[in-house]
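protien #1 (seq + structre)
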Amino acid sequence: MIRFEHTRKLYDGAAAIRELNLDIQQGELLVLLGPSGSGKSTVLKMVNRMVSHDGGHIFFNGQDINSFNVQDLRRRMGYAIQSVGLFPHRTVAQNIATVPKLLGWDAHRVQARVYELLKLLALDPEPYASRYPHQLSGGQQQRVGVARAMAADPDVLLMDEPFGALDPVTRAALQLTLKTIHRATGKTILFVTHDIDEALLLATRIVLLNQGRIAQVGTPLELLQQPANDFVADFLGRADLGLKQLSLRTIAPHIQAIEGTEPIHAIAHTATLREAISQMAALHVSTLCVTDAAGTLLGQVRAADLLENQHA
């Protein structure tokens, strides 16, 4: 889908990106993670030529990006940023419809797409389509920004710290929404963040950058369980790597039949190991009932089993 070959970028003679070699597969939710100044946003912006690279090559669907008309390239890549950038004088529907209208879609198709995306992003079309950006909360504006980026069904969705300015509750809700969108659409997403927990939650793979170079590439569990060097271990938080691993695993594989007295307290089968252990600690219990979405009892989980099997 996207390939970097020996890609370099200089700013005032200093290397921001050094010899980047990376293959991004179709359908990935790839997170670019790293400290400030590591080159995350530069990598993202080079993909749609908002920033030009100074050496090497970048390929999109097998074709060098410099061979594309830049406007055609960008229309194939949705772009969502932290500041949203909605047009204040346009309604929500008009904002989302920006690129489809540029592409000449007919009015019926545009409206259908606007309503489809509003529903996907948990915004009821009836009240929200006709509202203006100033009538929305920050989280709602960010949802509209994501909808606008997806409106023309782009091949790739580029997201540059889109949730960074939001409060923790809204941010968590939008992270879950993005995971739902990724599962539902299979869209290739490149996501920039400096937030480790956000990267671990969202990514199918993480590219951890340091001073313009790749420090490690892998799944969240691979980075946590097999950090390539001291920088990776320290950046991810050496002291709580185990806790972070617990956040990536669900309790579902550890559900057992109830033996003896049924536990008093229950937890959803979709809970993570960390959530289950935290709830046990708060309730001063070592066993919880597990229920499905309908409230049907599935069995139980025990603290000893969850902790013993965290590396399984």
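ok now protien #2
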Amino acid sequence: MTETKAPILELKNIMKAYDANVALKNAGLTVLPGEIHALMGANGAGKSTMIKIIAGAHKPNEGQIILNGEEVSFNNPKDALRKGVAVVYQELSLVPHLTVSENIAMGVDSVNKKGRYDWAESDRVAEAALKRLGKGGEGIGVRDKVGDLRADQMQMIEIARAIGQDASIILLDEPTSSLNFEETENLFTVIRELVKQDIAIIFVSHRMNEIREICDRISILRDGILVVDGRPMSQISDDDIVTEMLGEKLESEMVEKTALDEIDKRRELLRFGFDGSEQDYVIHEGEIIGLAGLAGSGRSSVLRAIWGGKVRDDMHFEYMGESYTPTKPSKALRSKMAYVGEDRAISGLFFGQPILETIIMGHRNLSKKQMVNNSQEEKIFRDVIDKIQIKIPAEDCTPSSLSGGNQQKLLFGRWIIDEAKLILLDEPTRGVDVRTKEEIYQRIRKMAADNNAGVLMVSSELNELEILCDRVIVMRDGRGENVLSGDEITEENMMRYIAHAEGT
């Protein structure tokens, strides 16, 4: 990528308002062909709105979109795609029961002829698109059913679909949020291959290490305004990026961990093990334990088994000193357990209901009252909103009106009403900005300390486990492989044990 090239995409003086809420104020973006351009900003900064404008999903109230030197107006996402602009969202839009070929080529004009679907042409388009991905397309057959593929392969299908429709600009929205370390590196290899073909990549992420590794230039939004305009990554530090995003320097509150010999004297909350293994794993009061490993190593499966969402016959449990058999989430809820799943859209938020319903539902199940006390629930709701510090446009708004970070905080708010003794967290900071991430870290520590609760958490961000955890269990093939404690918990050590576990 060289900066002497003419821009392939320019957004100039973009303004977008939703009623009285102004999301973008004279914002802009300049993208060059064959570059990887980072787009960053805190939750609520206007990134989602800009993404939707680039995708053709929303139209700006004011401003210009210039594509290949000519002003354009996108009427809808299909119109944007026909003009060479594709967006791969964090929540993939594939049709799982259809084939790879159908998912890649169904929107291609040459495949749909007079109301008939040309299977041979569909396969040809799909094969050509997968070939352009290089190694990323290997091992994927055009007649494979998409629902049978891994998460990283599904993402490759999304990218191949964009390529199959001749996209020259691909926007990747939090593309690594559901990928493990190896899959992320494979994605980066594909991205580097695409930019060699002069395709421009707009890369949206909150993960600083990934932005630093893959991107050429960076633009930053803050409160709907462009505050950094295409600065080369070599000319901006990580601290500067965070400061530009927040408008102030972020002061991280470092908390000294409790000594392990002190933790081991505390009451055991949960003991679990795997059949055939001599080792059990114990979570004590006030202890935070992490589960590390590649996707598919069984990290999330352990949490779901404890919560009762997925029965595992190969595991045994003791909870609060007694034998415990997980059966269903309602039993876990009555046993003072809390669960935050990795996909907030599936495992917690009620998008069609006011946000009060998301917060209060667990409490209703525990109280078992036949009648809803509106005034009491509204008081609980306001108390929770104040504690988790969410700014809401209206009390009857739905979770969809909130930024990703506030949606995640909403899930934590549900569990501060009835104090839990065991807290199960699956990717608790997925898709949130640096400030919200710090707030969630403090919330996890506070929930553990205030109620002597134990925490068992899964995270693909190893520095997160290093910051928070007293012990880390490295997983492989659904079982514990190694345990790291205290000063042993470093990113380097975890990577080494994960690589060893997967290679044995």
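DSSP finds 17 helices and 22 strands in the chain.
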